[in-house]
From TrEMBL:
<comment type="similarity">
    <text>Belongs to the transketolase family.</text>
</comment>
<dbReference type="InterPro" id="IPR005475">
    <property type="entry name" value="Transketolase-like_Pyr-bd"/>
</dbReference>
<dbReference type="InterPro" id="IPR029061">
    <property type="entry name" value="THDP-binding"/>
</dbReference>
<feature type="domain" description="Transketolase-like pyrimidine-binding">
    <location>
        <begin position="23"/>
        <end position="187"/>
    </location>
</feature>
<dbReference type="Pfam" id="PF02780">
    <property type="entry name" value="Transketolase_C"/>
</dbReference>
<dbReference type="Pfam" id="PF02779">
    <property type="entry name" value="Transket_pyr"/>
</dbReference>
<dbReference type="InterPro" id="IPR033248">
    <property type="entry name" value="Transketolase_C"/>
</dbReference>
<dbReference type="InterPro" id="IPR051157">
    <property type="entry name" value="PDH/Transketolase"/>
</dbReference>
<protein>
    <submittedName>
        <fullName>Transketolase subunit B</fullName>
    </submittedName>
</protein>
<keyword id="KW-0786">Thiamine pyrophosphate</keyword>
<dbReference type="InterPro" id="IPR009014">
    <property type="entry name" value="Transketo_C/PFOR_II"/>
</dbReference>
């Protein structure tokens, strides 16, 4: 591990996940929703006192008559969204992932999912994207939402994924839970002729030695790792899985079934109940048995601190991932 890294300040607890000099797009969710709402009058925006911090303020400024500030009351937020959906509106609801999945789970389950209502739930600070400790780190949100019947679950990688995801989820009838990256969001996938399709995994790059199956920011990390490991003659393929549920089983089985490659599932989520366990289950059911490894957050309450430090500590930084995979293929 490098010892000459710059000293980090408190602001690094909430710093952008973008690397130094990396291309970004500002508030891709807010701008995409505003653009879509210009065409669809059924869209309403709702939040629990977090418009500015989920980029919903862009929608609010464009459509104040279609914006609803519900206060710091996430259960009320979900219940009201269900009511709007019953009346024919399409609510886009924003809050932090911890507040939705821990405080309002029963309301999403009973009021929204059971009636298959057309509510789109976009949640910021997914996984380890904040340094403010367990109260704000949604390390288990995918496990909780995967378990909810009828709920589609999405974990986008970058600004392009988010921009293309918004109209796609609006075209899907039924409830959706999507992780949200906010503020200055890295732009990565436009270099790979990528297009988001709901329910589809995409092979971003091929490789003969290792297949990394990833979602969310871990696809960005996996692509960085693949470039780094070229110097060590390790050829890494990256399969991006933005839709966690329903899983694109056929594509995953096809790629994982190719002989001679280590299969690594990388996710910004606890080892329990997320993408890794979902893929492991499908591989076993199909009798596909590659050498299998997982890079994920531990089953633990995570520390508070600067994000770069925490990403190193928990093994999801580019540098640590590169070393981990290199040791596995030796």
């Amino acid at each position: 591990m490098s010892t000459n890294k710059p000293k980090l300040k408190t602001s690094a607890m909430i710093a952008s996940i973008a690397g130094e000099g990396q291309r970004t797009a500002s508030a891709p969710f807010g701008h995409a929703l505003k653009k879509l709402a210009e065409e669809r009058s059924d869209i309403v925006g709702m939040t629990a006192d977090l418009a500015k911090y989920t980029d919903l303020h862009i929608f609010r400024e464009a459509f104040p008559e279609r914006f609803y500030q519900m206060g710091m009351a996430e259960q009320l937020l979900m219940g009201a969204a269900a009511g709007f959906a019953h009346e024919g509106a399409m609510p886009f609801v924003t809050t932090y992932a911890v507040f939705a999945t821990r405080r309002a789970y029963d309301f999403m389950h009973q009021a929204i999912a059971e009636d298959n209502l057309n509510v789109k739930i976009a949640c910021a600070l997914p996984g380890l994207t904040t340094g403010y400790g367990p109260s704000h780190q949604a390390a288990e949100d995918l496990a909780l939402m995967r378990a909810m019947p009828g709920m589609t679950v999405i974990d986008p990688c970058d600004a392009l994924d988010i921009e293309q995801m918004v109209p796609a989820v609006a075209d899907h009838k039924g409830p959706i839970y999507m992780r949200l990256l906010r503020g200055k969001v890295p732009m990565v996938l436009d270099e790979y002729d990528y297009k988001f399709e709901l329910g589809k995994a995409k092979l971003i790059r091929d490789g003969r030695d290792v297949l990394v199956i990833s979602s969310g920011i871990m696809t960005m990390r996996a692509l960085e790792v693949a470039k780094e490991l070229e110097a060590d003659n390790v050829d890494v393929a990256v399969l991006h899985v933005p839709t966690i549920k329903p899983l694109d089983t056929s594509t995953i089985l096809r790629e994982a079934g190719r002989l001679g490659r280590l299969v690594v599932v990388a996710e910004n989520h606890t080892t329990i109940g997320g993408l890794g366990e979902a893929i492991g289950t499908e591989l076993l059911r199909a009798g596909v048995t590659p050498q299998f490894r997982q890079i994920a957050l531990p089953d633990a309450f995570l520390d508070a601190g600067a994000l770069p430090t925490l990403h190193d500590r928990y093994g999801i930084s580019t540098e640590v991932m590169s070393n981990t995979i290199k040791n596995w293929v030796r």
